[in-house]
């Protein structure tokens, strides 16, 4: 089978985060599949078709792209951030596993990108400079009890925590509950970073304390990083503070 | 103060992972600081000085770069992967916090890159498609007991686990001990990915099972991803298997 399917990470925001590999893979594709706002970020090229779909149609999009690749085309599925972190790569592989056996013979490539967590961390300093956990706060695809258990495990073991999908219209209370739960393990002064739309014109990165985090606003475009007991804040005159987690652990954990 | 210091992530391996932002920041710098093999990956430019240092001299390198920036230069500290993940960004900010107050007035920027975990995951499929933890297995800067506690917490809560710095000449037994510990929480068939030198000519990515992982070879250039109970393997004829962690959690955790 001659078809090829690449799942390509665009990084967050504008073109600055695009890698050379992603640029080349986009240029080589016969057809692009993706959520419309991500497709809009890719310059149009002659002889390249575009197939936009809605944000919640990952499964159907993956199947359509695989069918197209199985016809012999070079197909690209575009994804914001990194396709492997709460994005399209897992959807495509789920479709491969449950689809026609012939799809396994396709040339399938995942092209990594800068995921939101890395871009937000970079804007704030180096909050992920030591051990960290990354989880989605959405209970659409897993029970809320499991999310609570993971937050407990991560905070009590001293991991910094990056939260994807913190809030949506259908999930209004989960983020506040997560902060309440984390406050059982962490001091109120623990730095919390809210990064929204990083790399876009309306980018916003703010640093607050865990005790005040419930009052900060967040939406589906927000990535949140909650520090550990080791995370430090460097205050600067006339500039936003720098947040970082040292490479060495000084004291024992409580 | 007019000086600028950028900590720039080159991504792993060759130029394919370099972002547009990192490319532009490297081009704009008056001086480059870094571990020699990373500097070697940056094309030489006229009027740009190079200051190579050894791998274990992060603190001294950070201070030298900050002093140079404080003289008014545009200084770049280059880092493999992402500078914020077990790399130079935290070292630079540690030096800022403990250094002369004037260093806080510098224009300090962190330029994110593709960290090894994302590149290895992409080569193998989408093993980080659901919640995951990232930790360094080095007990040079934290007690081994804390690493064991974090491995326990991560595995028992169902996180996929990415391990940086799995082994070195001075730390020969820690990785085997980590696999033994993880085996208490996870089935022997759990997929384990060993990614070495991804993006380089001598790249190697292998998938094994947790029960056999202790027999696989690893070194400081290896990044290891240990799956969760949810992680799946798609076997393919004549091609390496695809490993992925589904977006949805099916059953309850044990």
Shape of chain A: elongated
Instruction: Extract low-pLDDT stretches of chain A.
Output: none
Number of helix segments of chain A? Answer: 7
The CATH first-level class of the largest domain in chain A comes to: Alpha Beta
The whole-number mean of residue pLDDT values of chain A reads 95
| Main beta-sheet strand count, sense and barrel state of chain A | 5 strands, parallel
Strand content of chain A: 25-35%
The span between the termini of chain A is: 57 Å
Q: Helix amount of chain A, in percent?
A: 25-40%
> For this entry, what is the oligomeric state of its chains?
homodimer
Query: Largest inter-chain interface?
Result: A-B, 78 and 78 residues
Identify the CATH architecture of the largest domain in chain A.
Answer: 2-Layer Sandwich
Q: What's the gyration radius of chain A in Å? A: 20 Å
Return the string of H and E elements of chain A: EHEHEHEHEHEEHEHEEEEE
Q: Strands across the major sheet of chain A, in which order? A: 3-2-4-1-5
Q: Spell out the CATH superfamily of the largest domain in chain A.
A: Tetrapyrrole methylase, C-terminal domain
Kindly state the number of beta strands of chain A.
13
Give the structure's gist in a few sentences.
Chain A is of the alpha/beta class.
How would you characterize this protein structure?
Two copies of one chain form a homodimer. Chain A is of the alpha/beta class. Chain A has two domains: 111 residues, Cobalt-precorrin-4 Transmethylase, domain 1, CATH 3.40.1010.10; 128 residues, Methyltransferase, Cobalt-precorrin-4 Transmethylase, Domain 2. Chain A contains seven helices and 13 strands. In chain A, the strands form three sheets. In chain A, strands 3-2-4-1-5 form a five-stranded parallel β-sheet, sandwiched between helices. In chain A, strands 7-8-11-9-10 form a five-stranded mixed β-sheet, with helices on both faces. Chain A has a three-stranded mixed β-sheet with strand order 6-13-12. In chain A, β9 and β10 form a beta hairpin. In chain A, α3 packs across α4 and α6 packs parallel to α7. The longest helix of chain A is centred in the first third of the chain and has 13 residues. The first copy, chain A, is elongated, with a radius of gyration of 20 Å. The termini of chain A are far apart. Chains A and B meet through α1, α4, β5, α5 and β6 of A and α1, α4, β5, α5 and β6 of B. β7 of chain A pairs antiparallel with β7 of chain B, so a sheet runs across the interface.
């Amino acid at each position: 089978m001659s078809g090829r399917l690449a799942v390509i990470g665009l990084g967050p925001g504008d073109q600055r985060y695009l890698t050379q590999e992603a640029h080349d893979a986009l240029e080589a594709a016969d057809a692009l599949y993706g959520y419309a706002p991500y497709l809009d970020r890719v310059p149009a090229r002659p002889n390249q078709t575009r197939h936009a779909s809605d944000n919640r149609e990952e499964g159907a999009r993956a199947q359509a792209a695989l069918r197209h690749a199985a016809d012999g085309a070079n197909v690209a599925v575009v994804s914001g951030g990194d396709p492997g972190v709460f994005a399209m790569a897992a959807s495509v592989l789920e479709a491969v596993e449950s689809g026609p056996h012939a799809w396994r013979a396709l040339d399938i490539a995942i092209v990594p990108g800068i995921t939101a967590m890395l871009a937000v961390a970079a804007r704030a300093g180096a909050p992920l400079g030591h051990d960290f956990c990354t989880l989605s706060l959405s209970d659409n695809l897993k029970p809320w009890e499991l999310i609570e258990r993971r937050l407990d495990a991560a905070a009590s073991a001293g991991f910094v925590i990056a939260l994807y999908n913190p809030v949506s219209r259908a999930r209004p209370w989960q983020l506040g509950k997560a902060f309440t739960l984390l406050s059982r393990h962490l001091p109120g002064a623990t730095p919390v970073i809210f990064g929204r739309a990083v790399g876009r014109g309306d980018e916003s990165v703010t640093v607050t304390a865990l005790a005040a985090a419930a009052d900060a606003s967040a939406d589906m475009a927000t990535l949140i990083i909650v520090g550990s007991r080791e995370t430090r804040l460097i205050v600067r005159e006339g500039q936003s503070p720098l947040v970082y987690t040292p490479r060495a652990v000084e004291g024992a954990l409580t």
